Amino acid sequence: VGVNIGANKDAEDRTADYVAGLDLFYDVATYFTVNISSPNTPGLRDLQAPAALDELLSRIMAAREKHVAAGAPRRPIVVKIAPDIAE
Q1: What is residue 30's DSSP assignment?
Q2: What is this structure's pTM?
Q3: Distance in angstroms (rounded) separating the CA atoms of residues 84 and 41
Q4: Of the listed 4, 33, 38, 48, which one is catalytic?
Q5: Could you confirm whether 37 is annotated as catalytic?
Q6: Exposed (0-12), middle (13-18) or buried (19+): which is 28, by Cβ within 10 Å?
Q7: N or C: which end of the chain has fewer CB atoms below 10 A?
């Protein structure tokens, strides 16, 4: 079961929304998709900028490691970027 995690459009800390989604669904997911490409969420694609993406993935990986340290299996994490992103 794959779980697509994202941020609410009005979130003050969008990265916290991703971490909350990972934490909430960790026990039922077999993998997670970090969706930073939705054109329907204003400003979401800003998370594709290198510094923002680094922070997001660092916090996601730290959250995953918290679950692994507690005995859960390490779930794969996939990042969904915009198909039209510039190199």
Answers
A1: S
A2: 0.90
A3: 16
A4: 38
A5: no
A6: exposed
A7: C
CA distance 36 to 44: 6
**Distance, CA of 23 to CA of 27 (rounded, Å):** 8
Neighbours of 40 (CB within 10 A): 6
- Per-residue pLDDT of 25-84, as tens digits, reads 999 999 999 999 888 788 888 898 899 999 999 999 999 999 999 999 999 999 998 888
Question: What distance in Å separates the CA atoms of residue 46 and residue 36, rounded to the nearest whole number?
Answer: 8
The Cα–Cα gap between 73 and 64 comes to 9
The DSSP annotation for 10-22 comes to: T-SSHHHHHHHHH
d(CA 7, CA 18): 6
